[in-house]
Amino acid sequence: MEHLLNCIKEPTVCHKCFEEFKKDPSISPSLRDYTLLDVGFTDIGIQVWCRRHERNVCHVNFDGNQLESDFRCIEPV
Ligand SMILES: [Zn+2]
Fold it and tell me: What is the pTM of this model?
């Protein structure tokens, strides 16, 4: 079940959000708070979209493969 906890090692960040936050860190308590990201499945895979800048951050192409995924939500003990 460990994989259902936060395992993120490298956060996905909008480049424009990063540049704006780097230029003026007072705009938000953290870059994580500043970014406004949507994540969702598309026809080819999964996309990360910046709502602040209305632009693509990352689009992963599954190349037709059906990958294992787990949508269960658990509470850390
Ligand atoms: Zn952005």
Answer: 0.86
